[in-house]
Structure formats: structure tokens, C-alpha cells
Write a structure and sequence with these properties.
The chain is α/β, with parallel strands linked by helices. It folds into three domains: 51 residues, no CATH class; 254 residues, Rossmann fold (3-Layer(aba) Sandwich), CATH 3.40.50.720; 68 residues, UDP-galactose 4-epimerase, domain 1, CATH 3.90.25.10. The protein contains twelve helices and 15 strands. A seven-stranded parallel sheet has the order 5-4-3-6-7-8-13, sandwiched between helices. Helix 5 packs across helix 11. The structure holds the ligand O=C(O)[C@H]1O[C@H](OP(=O)(O)OP(=O)(O)OC[C@H]2O[C@@H](n3ccc(=O)[nH]c3=O)[C@H](O)[C@@H]2O)[C@H](O)[C@@H](O)[C@H]1O. The ligand O=C(O)[C@H]1O[C@H](OP(=O)(O)OP(=O)(O)OC[C@H]2O[C@@H](n3ccc(=O)[nH]c3=O)[C@H](O)[C@@H]2O)[C@H](O)[C@@H](O)[C@H]1O binds next to strand 10.
């Protein structure tokens, strides 16, 4: 059987039996009447391969490679449609991590008031991706398109900016979780540092440049003892790799603000909870274990002190995100060049009444009407 190559480019006549040589030669000459026709065929093949590759992007997500499909006229149409603004002075926002807990809520809030929203999410398996898929359906039903891809994919991000002149980027894609950093440190560097830089590179090169609002974390306060935390407190004692990558993000965004004139707002989230929340968080995993009669581990700090968190309800976080987008001010650069100073802001997004972990457990026991089996455990870090 002839190979595809034989079909498209028949071999030299010498490869065929003599009695067929003339026939084949004639066919060959009919097909490729001249070397220039042959060149055109080769060009066609190259173009075909290139266009195939533009639909395929091989992305390393930290734990595995996956093939993301994107591109094409239909895809671009969906992106543009999703980014359409339906109110005066509205914005078109690229939301990274749109299938995540905070990302899905912020996307819905923006869409509801008439802003254009395009999401991107890599649907990784840090926790059950079916929850992310369910959030995606929720967003799709409201006309929000989510691109399945990774923020480390520079070609994809550039393509998104080519397709839509986003006015804002709400950057919420990240490797979350404080304790998982000891299991999989590289996924934090991959998403929270490398991914952030890839995204900022695209933002800096975009024309017009978008304003960027992104999720930092209360964990940057690390070993600090003084409460409540103020934005001006020191943040140079991170107590986990997660915290260190978020702190690095604050420094990295500062650089892009300083060199390229990108408007940057970093939001330090304080232990966000609410509907569609993350199953890896304590309120969620405690509930599951209590209901299944399994023990829960309650961490303690120095001298067996109870740990406490400023649990913050998702609706308040959404208000903080949307308010930050509304007040972000413009980026000043264009074509990768700074034209003047741009805003650089950091805000705490938290409550002002920390709740201890044992209190959290008591609240859950009361509502679940089941007694928890507590196991107390020393803790190497505070946040
Ligand atoms: O605001 C943040 O910057 C971070 O918030 C969240 O981290 P945390 O505040 O650590 O939330 P969460 O796991 O719910 O633990 C809550 C409390 O339960 C304690 N805890 C936890 C688990 C356990 O098994 N036992 C336990 O005592 C634990 O020691 C803690 O005192 C996000 O996950 C993180 O991505 C980041 O956004």
C-alpha cells in the first residue's frame, strides 16, 4: 500500500518497474508539471501542518502534560461574543482561574452587571475537576466562555489578546493550599511564579495594556504576631512555600508596574469560604470527615495555642474584586513601553474578627448535629 508520502510525492521514476515507468512519469508530469507546482504543493503541506499545530498546544501543567485545543474561526467568535460589553462604560475582563471557587463567582458578578467576561482555566486535578466542570456549566449558561488552557501557554494568551482588547485582567489562577506545597512544591512555582510572569508578559505587550487585579494572600504575613494585619506590616517571613510564591508575586507585579506602566492591584485574600467552595479547605474537609465518622486533625500553634483565621465570605471577596477592577486606574504603557507612572496597590480582603479552629469545629458540630473526633497536632507554621 502506498504511504501518504507516496501518494502526495510519488518517488523518482527509477523506483518503479520499467514497464510502468513511462506511465508513472506521465502521471508525475501531469501532477507536477513543473518544479514550481511541486514547490506549491510542498508549501501547501507546510501550511496544513502549521495550521494543525496552531490548534494544538502541548502544555505542562505542573503535574502532567495535556493537549489543549484552541483557535479557529468558531473559537474566536465565541471569545468575542463572551467579551461583549452590555452596559455603558463597561469593561471586558479576562478572568484566569474562571472555573475556580473565586473565579467563577467573580465572573458571574461581572457578567450580571453587563461586563464582558472571558475565562481561562486549566482544569487541573488538585481537587476533583468535576466540581470545576460544574462551575463551568454554570458560567456557560450565563454566556461566559471558558477557554481550557494554561496561563503558562504564552501563544494561547497572546492569541486571546489578539482576539479581544481586554480592558482588565482578573488574575485568579493559582496553585492554592498552604499544606499541599510540601507535597508538590513545583506546582506552586509553575503556576504562581512562572504562570504569573507569562501572563504579565502578555499584558505588558498588549496594546492597549489592560489593568491587572490579582489574588495574593493573607499568608504573606507569615510569622507576624501583630494583629490585625495591616498592608504596611512586614511580609518578609513567609511560613510556607505557598506564601513565598504569593510574596514573590507581589514583588514581580511591582516590577511590571515600575518598568512597563501596568496598573496593578494585589488582593490579599483571607481564608475565603462559601457556596461552590474548595473541598481542600478545612471547613469542607472537616464537614466531610465529621459526617463520615472519621477523625479530624486540629492544628495548634506555638505553646499549643489555638490557630485562628479571618474567614471571609465569598460575596465580600467578590465585592472587593469588582471594586478593585472599577477603581484600578489605567495602565500607561503601550507596545511594552512605559509612558508614565501607573497605580500599584495592595489591599487586605478580610474580615476583622478571627475565629479559632476549635470554634469552627464547634459551629460545624452544632449544625451537623454530630460530635467531631478531634486529633490535636503541633503545627510547624502559623499561616
Ligand atoms: O487566606 C489565605 O491566604 C489562604 O486561605 C486558605 O488557607 P488556610 O487559611 O490554611 O485555610 P484552611 O485550609 O481552610 O485552614 C483553616 C484553618 O484550619 C486549620 N486546619 C486545616 C486543615 C486541617 O486538617 N486541620 C486544621 O486545623 C489550618 O491550620 C487553619 O488554621 C487557602 O487554602 C489558601 O489557599 C489561602 O488562600
Amino acid at each position: 500500500m502506498p504511504s501518504l508520502e507516496d501518494e502526495l510525492f510519488p518517488s523518482t521514476p527509477g523506483k518503479f518497474k520499467i514497464d510502468r515507468a513511462n506511465t508513472m512519469n506521465r502521471q508525475f508530469h501531469r501532477c507536477f508539471a513543473s518544479t514550481s507546482t511541486m514547490f506549491l504543493w510542498a508549501l501547501f503541506l507546510v501550511a496544513l501542518t502549521a495550521s494543525y499545530l496552531s490548534f494544538q498546544s502541548f502544555v505542562y501543567t505542573g503535574s502532567r502534560y495535556f493537549t489543549a485545543s484552541w483557535g479557529g474561526i468558531q473559537w474566536e467568535k465565541q471569545i468575542r461574543h463572551s467579551a461583549q460589553i452590555h452596559r455603558s462604560n463597561g469593561m471586558s475582563v479576562l478572568v484566569t482561574g474562571a472555573a475556580g471557587f473565586v473565579g467563577s463567582h467573580v465572573s458571574l458578578a461581572l457578567k450580571k452587571r453587563g461586563d464582558g467576561v472571558v475565562g481561562i482555566d486549566n482544569f487541573n486535578n488538585y481537587y476533583d475537576p468535576s466540581l470545576k466542570r460544574a462551575r463551568k456549566s454554570l458560567l456557560n449558561n450565563q454566556g461566559i466562555f471558558i477557554v481550557e488552557g494554561d496561563i503558562n501557554d504564552a501563544r494561547l494568551i497572546a492569541k486571546l489578546f489578539d482576539t479581544v482588547a481586554f480592558t482588565h485582567v482578573m488574575h485568579l489562577a493559582a496553585q492554592a493550599g498552604v499544606r499541599y506545597a510540601m507535597e508538590n512544591p513545583h506546582s506552586y512555582v509553575h503556576s504562581n511564579i512562572a504562570g504569573l510572569v507569562t501572563l504579565l508578559e502578555a499584558c505588558k505587550s498588549a496594546n492597549p495594556q489592560p489593568s491587572v487585579v490579582w489574588a495574593s494572600s493573607s499568608s504573606v504575613y507569615g510569622l507576624n504576631e501583630k494583629v490585625p494585619f495591616s498592608e504596611t506590616d512586614r511580609t518578609d517571613q513567609p511560613a510556607s512555600l505557598y506564601a513565598a510564591t504569593k510574596k514573590a508575586g507581589e514583588e514581580i507585579t511591582h516590577t511590571y508596574n515600575h518598568i512597563y506602566g501596568l496598573s496593578i492591584t494585589g488582593l490579599r485574600f483571607f481564608t475565603v469560604y462559601g457556596p461552590w467552595g474548595r473541598p481542600d479547605m478545612a471547613y469542607f474537609s472537616f464537614t466531610r470527615n465529621i459526617l463520615q465518622g472519621k477523625p479530624i486533625t486540629v492544628y495548634r500553634g506555638k505553646d499549643r495555642a489555638d490557630l485562628a483565621r479571618d474567614f471571609t465570605f465569598i460575596d465580600d471577596i467578590v465585592k472587593g474584586c469588582v471594586g478593585s477592577l472599577d477603581t484600578s486606574g489605567k495602565s500607561t504603557g503601550s507596545g511594552g513601553k512605559k509612558r508614565g507612572p501607573a497605580p500599584y496597590r495592595i489591599f487586605n480582603l478580610g474580615n476583622t474578627s478571627p475565629v479559632t479552629v476549635p470554634t469552627l469545629v464547634s459551629i460545624l458540630e452544632r449544625h451537623l448535629k454530630v460530635k467531631a473526633k478531634r486529633k490535636f497536632c503541633g503545627y510547624a507554621w502559623k499561616r
